[in-house]
Amino acid sequence: MDDKYCDIGLWEDKVIEESSELITELSTLIKAIIKAKRFGPTNSNLHKPEIKNKEQILLEILDLRYGLNAYEKELKGENNGM
């Protein structure tokens, strides 16, 4: 979540929003894993030939970790002074 929006709205709503983003990130990660299994970890996506399938998985894992960390901070009240 962008810092300029941290103080807007109820923290419960922000947690719900962040959770939905985690679901999206997890879905994208699962798709990357399946593509790597189908086409091989060293093959590339036709739309992103510079990125290998296994590199895409690692990028998606980083995105998921970022989302989980943001969610954890929301729950602990670190993002909104709760």
Fold and architecture overview:
The chain has a two-stranded antiparallel sheet. The chain is mainly alpha-helical and 82 residues long. It has 2 helices and 2 strands. Strand 1 and strand 2 (48-52) form a beta hairpin. It is elongated, with a radius of gyration of 16 Å. The chain has helices spanning 11-39, 53-76; strands at residues 44-45, 48-52. The chain has one domain.
Quick description:
By secondary structure, the chain is mainly alpha-helical. The protein has 2 helices and 2 strands, in the order αββα.
SSE arrangement, N to C: HEEH
Uncertain segments are: none
Percent helix: 55-70%
Overall residue-averaged pLDDT value: 83
> Biggest β-sheet: count, sense, barrel?
2 strands, antiparallel
Strand content: 5-15%
Number of DSSP strand runs: 2
Question: Mind sketching the topology for me?
Answer:
Blueprint: H1 11-39, E1 44-45, E2 48-52, H2 53-76
Antiparallel strand pairs: 1-2
Helix pairs in contact: 1-2
Keywords:
82 residues; mainly alpha; 2 helices; 65% helix; elongated
